[in-house]
Write a structure and sequence with these properties.
heterodimer; A: alpha/beta; Rossmann fold; four-stranded antiparallel sheet; 34% helix; B: Rossmann fold; 12 strands
Chain lengths: 331, 334
């Protein structure tokens, strides 16, 4: 196995609120190699975006802070370096694209100017060269007539085109890693397919690593090499995409896969559901966080004690809750 | 019984929409004059039987939600006809519409924005009865309790406010409100697209259960084709203000005829990594409904070599097979 480009170890992120310190991400570890795509999947509020934000130290201030763990990138721990150094990493080494390109783009500046701003921030270059580079980038991400589009404002572009502008901006300094936080959630399926295809192509051309955050299992299945399934601030299961889909081990992963209506599911029949809701951060048990919704029977100790992480080979690992751990060793 | 169900006897449709058009003026210039027309819905015809679910799919901006609002008469159609249970409601006034709304209700996409944040859930659910002047206070309290039980919310929800609930529970409140007057038709405009998958499954199951219990008909709008397939008996595919294909759910998914339907189905990512494939990518976006292209709008987007032939043609829905209608143009239907 090659050395990972980005290695997140035991990351813990908390928010200071009126009700005290809430731990949104609790002991999350994963790594990603260059040229690979890691999918992070989970329901809203499970800590996907907070994990991504804390890699780039973009947590809302002053409430959010990294409580522990490390984010190793090219021999440096991003969670410990100075803000000055961090600013050089953002956009230059690791770039990020967001869910809603309309809110991420500045509405009062032409899109070209916004791309140029990103280039000039990191690269010594004349304004004319930067403009030429911006047009090149827009052409690269498949924006038709880029020399005209460069002068247009975000509201003049469609959702898909805006997301392409975001991608052009993110890739302007050839980052080694790209974090894409729900890049296609606001888009139609047809445009989603275009954007996913584009990301794949750009990744093949640049060899960058991509962290793709989504709640859509279909998107994960189509684009990722590895998956981390997050639940309530922890990783429930992690492994190669083929393994996870063929043999999901954690009851949460199993439930998540079962409740998506599939095109070949018998119509108008009840779908399998995961009953109940994610427990609130204030009432999070120390042990298995899925226990309250789990179909398996539990002893009280499952809720009280942190359940061990178990590796099952081929990089497939799972938080082995006592309710199913026995079946793992049997296999 | 056989006689009744056979082809010779057909029940009156619950809802019939004929050639519905909703055009908005685009104003501008010094005198605020009408510069152009935005043809949000441009000639849609469909019908809905009692207890049936008709799915409506298409990309954003194709006019799905405008059709929904015109059907429940939250907006006034520019042309065409909306007939509900044999009554033409296209031009009904406020009084007639109020009576009508006992029969047809709507569930909106964002439950947070469609519930009054200053009202308790009890007040929200009681309001339909108050507007319709139904029941004494004790009756209404009983009905509200019954509604909460029906949609799977705890009885103490009555005294709580919408913000105290999760997205899925709020959508249950929205559904309970639509259900309050025991309507025959509920128009669901993207009812689950703001919800997480595990909650989405719960809400879809609730909708199916209520349909069985009350014989509801749904006009079900969604952009997720797997969800629409799961819920619908028949599906209509919309593109730029027009229906391009309409068929039973099975037929449409198994045998799509229009190039747009095929492209839409092909774009759905399959939750199965062994089925990765090179897809035929649909280029471009839905064109603006202001000054739409002439002829077949989809052929124009795809730059189809035979698109020119469709200009000037009367692009009507044609019944290719029993119950399978498609807009027949030379470029999109092979």
């Amino acid at each position: 196995m090659a050395d990972p480009l980005l290695n997140v170890r035991n990351l813990r992120v908390g928010f200071q609120t009126d009700q005290g310190l809430l731990t949104a991400v609790d002991d999350v570890s994963f790594s990603i190699e260059a040229g690979k795509t890691l999918g992070i999947v989970g329901e809203s509020g499970c800590g996907k975006s907070v994990t991504a934000m804390s890699i780039l130290r973009l947590l809302p201030q002053p409430a959010g802070r990294i409580l522990g763990g490390e984010v190793m990138f090219e021999g440096r721990d991003l969670s410990k370096i100075s803000l000055e150094e961090m600013r050089r990493v953002r956009g230059n080494d690791i770039a990020m694209i967001f869910q809603e390109p309309m809110t991420a783009l500045n509405p009062v500046h032409p899109v070209g100017r916004q791309i140029i701003e990103a280039i000039l921030l990191h690269k010594p270059m004349s304004a004319t060269d930067a403009l030429r580079r911006a047009v090149e980038l827009m052409n690269w991400v498949g924006i038709p007539a880029p020399d005209q589009r460069v002068n247009e404002y975000p509201h003049q572009l469609s959702g898909g085109m805006r997301q392409r502008v975001m991608i052009a901006m993110a890739l302007s300094c050839s980052p080694r890693a790209l974090i894409a936080d729900e890049p296609t959630t606001a888009l139609d399926v047809t445009v989603q397919a275009q954007i996913l295809e584009l990301l794949k192509r750009l990744q093949n051309e640049t060899g960058m690593a991509v962290i793709l955050i989504t709640h859509d299992l279909g998107v994960i299945a189509e684009t990722c090499d590895d998956v981390a399934v997050m639940y309530a601030g922890r990783i429930a299961e992690r492994g190669p995409v083929g393994q996870i889909f063929a043999r999901p081990l954690h009851p949460y992963t199993q439930g998540l896969m079962a409740c998506v209506p599939k095109l070949d599911h018998p119509p108008k029949t009840p779908l399998p559901v995961i009953p109940g809701m994610v427990p609130s951060l204030r009432e999070m048990p120390a042990g298995c966080r899925f226990a309250s919704r789990c179909p398996n029977a539990h002893s009280d100790s499952v809720l009280a004690e942190r359940q061990p992480w178990q590796e099952c080979g081929h990089g497939h690992g799972v938080e082995a809750c006592a309710c199913f751990a026995a079946t793992l060793s049997a296999k | 019984m056989r006689m009744l169900c056979g082809n010779t006897f057909r029940e009156m449709s619950l809802l019939t929409v004929q050639n519905l058009k909703v055009h908005y003026p685009v104003r501008g210039g010094v005198f605020h004059s009408t510069k152009a027309w935005c043809k949000a819905v441009d000639g849609v015809s469909l019908s809905l039987e009692p207890g049936e679910t008709l799915g409506l799919v298409g990309e954003s901006g194709c006019g799905k939600s405008t059709v929904a609002k015109a059907v429940v008469r939250l907006l006034k159609p520019t042309a065409g006809q909306v007939v509900f249970e044999g009554h033409d409601i296209t031009h009904s006034g406020q009084g007639a519409l109020r009576t009508l709304r006992r029969q047809m209700q709507m569930v909106f996409q964002d439950p947070a924005e469609s519930l009054n944040p200053r009202h308790t859930v009890g007040q929200i659910l009681e309001e339909p009865f108050l507007i319709q002047k139904l029941g004494a206070r004790s009756d209404r309290t009983e009905w509200v309790d019954d509604l909460l039980r029906r949609v799977g919310l705890p009885p103490d929800a009555v005294h709580r406010y919408p913000f105290e609930f999760s997205g899925g529970q709020r959508q249950r409140i929205g559904i309970a409100r639509a259900l309050a007057l025991k309507p025959k038709l509920i128009v669901c405009d993207e009812p689950v697209s703001a919800l997480d998958v595990s909650v989405q499954a719960q809400v879809l199951n609730l909708l199916l259960e209520l349909q069985r219990a009350f014989g509801l008909a749904y006009l079900f709008i969604a952009h997720d084709l797997s969800v629409v397939k799961h819920m619908s008996d028949r599906v209509a595919v919309m593109y730029l203000g027009k229906i391009v294909e309409l068929a039973t759910m099975d037929e449409l998914y198994r045998n799509p005829l229009h190039a747009y339907t095929k492209a839409l189905l092909d774009a759905v990512p399959a939750p199965d990594p062994t089925k990765r494939r090179q897809r035929q990518l649909l280029r471009g976006d839905v064109p603006s409904p202001i000054n739409p292209p002439e002829g077949c709008a989809f052929g124009h987007r795809m730059n189809h070599p035979r698109w020119k032939e469709s200009v000037g043609m009367d692009l009507k829905l044609v019944e290719m097979k029993a119950g399978h209608w498609v807009q027949r143009c030379p470029c999109c239907v092979g």
